[in-house]
């Protein structure tokens, strides 16, 4: 697949940089996408979408092996996979048939309650400061190790765990506060 991309790059130095990124991160990108999508074919689509994005921003990328490049690659493939996941959910809603046995009122109420909780949690995550949101994304969605996240932010692994703990506590307290009000 690399042969598809390199003719799109005019500068030989940029071709070498792209090749190094492709060879260094392709397996990691595929692993991240598969962990989000649980579908190898769609994961491959997410990785390819990410490489098309990387082509666009290639002049702005520094060293291929730098932590910053790794973070860019991981975040980009996570976003691409989540976009595919969202579009797949929209497709399923359109095509979905009625279930054979319709759920009872209790099941519907429980499902609505879960959806409401997830919606609030997503909203609270989006309201977090960018660095906290990115750290959650890298750890929980991209499955990056705390040690790697620490290297990206120039902090210790223990500090990563402490910050993740503080962020999740903040989210839990906000959710509990809503439940007490409602």
What does this structure look like?
The chain is mainly α. The protein has eight helices and no strands. The protein has helices at 2-5, 12-37, 40-57, 67-95, 105-127, 130-141, 146-153, 157-181. The N and C termini lie far apart (53 Å). The mean pLDDT is 86.
Blueprint (SSEs and pairs):
Layout: H1 2-5, H2 12-37, H3 40-57, H4 67-95, H5 105-127, H6 130-141, H7 146-153, H8 157-181
Helix pairs in contact: 2-3, 2-4, 3-4, 4-6, 7-8
Unreliable spans are none
Given the helix and strand composition, which structural class is it?
mainly alpha
For the residues shown, what is the average pLDDT?
86
Major sheet summary line: none
N- and C-termini, Cα separation: 53 Å
Report the order of strands and helices. HHHHHHHH
Give the overall shape, derived from the CA principal axes.
Answer: flat
Radius of gyration: 20 Å
Brief synopsis:
The protein has 182 residues and is mainly α. The protein has helices at 2-5, 12-37, 40-57, 67-95, 105-127, 130-141, 146-153, 157-181. 16% of the residues are buried.
Please describe the structure with a list of short key phrases separated by commas or semicolons:
80% helix; 182 residues; 8 helices; mainly alpha
